[in-house]
Amino acid sequence: MQGKVIFVGAGPGNPELLTLEAYQVLQEADVVLYDALVGPEVLDLIPSRTQKIYVGKRATNHSHKQREINELLLDMVRQHECVVRLKGGDTLIYARLADELAVLQQARIPYQVLAGITTLSGTAAALGLPLTSRDCGSELLITTVSTYSDLETCKAVMTFLNRGSGVAIYMPTFRGQHVLPNLLEVGVDAELPLLLVVQATLPTQRQQSTNLGQADYDQLCAFSAGDPTIFLLGWSFANYISTAMLSKVLESVHVH
Amino acid sequence: MQGKVIFVGAGPGNPELLTLEAYQVLQEADVVLYDALVGPEVLDLIPSRTQKIYVGKRATNHSHKQREINELLLDMVRQHECVVRLKGGDTLIYARLADELAVLQQARIPYQVLAGITTLSGTAAALGLPLTSRDCGSELLITTVSTYSDLETCKAVMTFLNRGSGVAIYMPTFRGQHVLPNLLEVGVDAELPLLLVVQATLPTQRQQSTNLGQADYDQLCAFSAGDPTIFLLGWSFANYISTAMLSKVLESVHVH
Question: Which of A117, A149, A180 is the last residue of a domain?
């Protein structure tokens, strides 16, 4: 017996951000292998008869654990018809999908990939914040901490910031000490608006706005408290920061 | 009487890519104002009692139509409790949300924004194509044709391409004649893999792979045939193009 694997993006945490197809696939799965970033409320949507296996990685032991996940995936798909591999956010961005796909391709096991709401889209929607704009900001750059180790790449980031475009940094705060100083060093304007959003779309979501030059890194780390965090940088966010964020608490919609 | 407006991202066209909250909101709306890029299968999910108003823009008459849409939105929300503004793709990327938000803010009308699957996520999932990778390509740059008019920005794009990162160009082919020549002019490697995906996630989805130097622009335009198209550029896509795309037709999942 050999089944198939379906990779499912669970979105940023709020279960209402699952797609219709992701929800349906979770109802039909025999086994679900899930990551640390998948929210508990998403797991609650999976029927109790379904086998759920936690495969979250430990920070200090990545490579070993990935091999274990690969082996478990093969093992499960040889025993079950429908194995779901559930990842936080989207499956295609910062989800290290390639390793697992390669293992399945090599073993000639069929698979399918379902898109999920990215943490960035969830963040922007939760704030009512357009990520591109017509007048300025016709690009959107999605990056992570490693980008800012290289000053040449920081300069390329600056080219987009100077055009008014938005930059999103998926950033574990404890690893990003160099990001803001390196941007300032290559000449990014210290007045550049910076927005930090923690645990977007969850009831525990919180955000803070400042600008590049005034940002106190230790204070931002304390605010983030080790939870999933996105930094948003861009002139096009200035208007948002000055209006919506400081004034209006919008009515929320409850759909379940 | 004054209601609220909910902005909903319809995703790239396949109705199964709606989120649970978007689906629910469409069931509860009194009126739905929808764009040209919203697929007919998504519209079929809206109850027949709901008033549906097409507000797609004509290519030659943008500014006037946007003013009309703004007025219609205000008019509708003064008559109904729940007005849905349905846009193709996500609501936050290339959806010109800012104009409509500003109008509502000024009139002090409550609104909420729901995220949608971006056309890019839908495209990548449909192809089983990771958009970032661990070894190379830790950035993802989302752009449109106007980016490539400016050679300095083309050079910044090249910095990311040289690092192995992926670049997605949301591109109406009939306006993008300058894009590929300008990338070659600033020195991007002619061997760079290029993937063109048309009408991603729909039954009419089609794709073609080539490389920057060999791409025949007129031929790509003919292939696109004026339908919504994404160009994907990046060394990290080479492996995908050489394996998955040329070999395997994966089993599809039908969830409705």
Answer: A117
